[in-house]
Design brief:
By secondary structure, the chain is α+β, with helices and mostly antiparallel strands. It has helices spanning 4-13, 93-109, 144-155, 170-182, 197-202, 207-227, 279-284, 295-310, 316-319, 324-337, 353-358; strands at residues 21-22, 32-33, 50-53, 57-61, 87-90, 122-127, 139-143, 159-163, 187-191, 231-236, 249-250, 253-254, 262-265, 269-273, 287-292, 347-349.
């Protein structure tokens, strides 16, 4: 049913599909399935976003390099054109590790070589199974990003700050919940988009969209039960009135689509990567990131994230580990009571009600699929 030009592009960009099609000679002909070829599942994506420049600089984080990702920090575009992300440019020993990773990750996913050890780069890599019969999953080879997050959570004492596009990994949610149980002083700030992009902007009702929303509602419930009033979950929206009533808006304003993947633990360490806090990114997809443990650099990153959402230099109570959650919560609630154009910054309370209504459980489907 596609336009011929769109069809040619789609087939070009889906190389595993091409052997299973009979393509006509004329561009308006009918495409037929070729059932003589056995199908091979490819459930994993190379989702990393990094570049090594002249062997001296590393560009890494959550930002994809395409026009769709362009935005300014004022977020004055249509909701579907907003894009909040975090990317860093750095030099140092991470560059050599990143170059080695770029030269080897495809061979690892094919099962040709073992993952080389790295001291300065965090990765997720899986490889294909030799026999896919009755299995939907690849074999995880490297889960350094998942392990780094779990270790950092165990070390955190006062405040964990997370920005993520998806919060769907129940294993990680339970790790946070256990840390909250062990440490009554531990607090959490979690910033999420109001809805996934395919649901907000394409009105998707697909099974994967529903399963992802089910998992996110479950994860939100896990941490809310564990942390109680020690957690604030926020979502960003533009400071202007929305004329729509679908999930591309929240509290009467167009959402700001959050795509960043930033985790900050106290004032001691941070993780910046391409990995969302979902099973795909932490266990299956190809991902890359870095750990920052220089206190000055952690403070710079924290200040940049906080200033962006609060739209000014935050006063000390927004930074202080003992008062940050309450201060962010009060700011978000105050913004709800204001007209969108009168709000202070972008931050509003996140609600999981829509995700809970829309989400569907799919028993037997691995959580890592979404």
């Amino acid at each position: 049913g596609l336009d011929p030009d769109e069809r040619r592009r789609f087939i070009t960009e889906a190389p595993r599909l091409r052997p299973h099609l009979k393509l006509p000679g004329d561009k308006d002909g009918v495409v037929m399935a070729d059932w003589w070829h056995s199908f091979r599942l490819t459930p994993v994506t190379h989702h990393q976003k990094l570049a090594v420049i002249d062997g001296k600089l590393l560009y890494i984080g959550g930002l994809d390099l395409n026009d769709r990702r362009y935005d300014t920090q004022d977020h004055k575009q249509a909701a579907e054109q907003t894009w909040h992300d975090v990317q860093v440019l750095l030099s140092g020993p991470e560059v050599e590790d990143a170059l080695t990773h770029l030269e080897t990750f495809e061979s690892i996913t094919q099962g040709d070589i073992r993952p080389p050890p790295m001291r300065h780069l965090l990765r997720t890599i899986s490889r294909k199974r030799h026999f896919n019969v009755m299995r939907l999953s690849p074999i995880p080879c490297v889960e350094e990003l998942a392990q780094a997050h779990a270790s950092a959570v165990s070390r955190a004492r006062r405040l964990i700050y997370l920005e993520t596009q998806f919060f769907r990994d129940r294993r990680f949610a339970r790790t946070l919940a256990k840390a909250a149980g062990r440490n009554p002083d531990l607090t959490l700030i979690l910033i999420l988009p109001a809805a996934p992009d395919d649901v907000a902007f394409e009105n998707s009702t697909s099974g994967d969209a529903r399963y992802g929303e089910f998992l996110q509602a479950e994860c939100v419930d896990i941490i809310r039960r564990a942390f109680g009033n020690r957690v604030f979950i926020g979502t960003p929206a533009q400071p202007r009135v929305s004329g729509r009533r679908d999930r591309s808006q929240t509290y009467g304003a167009p959402l700001v689509y959050l795509h960043a993947k930033v985790s900050i633990f106290d004032d001691d360490e941070a993780i910046l990567s391409s990995a969302n806090l979902n099973g795909r990114s932490l266990h299956w997809d190809t991902e890359a990131g870095i750990r920052v443990d220089n206190p000055d650099e952690v403070a710079t990153l924290k200040r940049a994230c906080f200033r962006h959402w609060l739209a000014h230099e935050p006063t000390p109570e927004f930074y202080d580990c003992g008062t940050a959650v309450e201060s962010w919560r009060n700011r978000a609630r105050d913004n709800v009571r204001r007209r969108p154009e009168e709000r202070k910054g972008f931050i509003l309370p996140y609600s999981a009600r829509a995700a809970r209504r829309f989400g569907r459980r799919f028993p037997g489907i691995p959580e890592e699929m979404v």
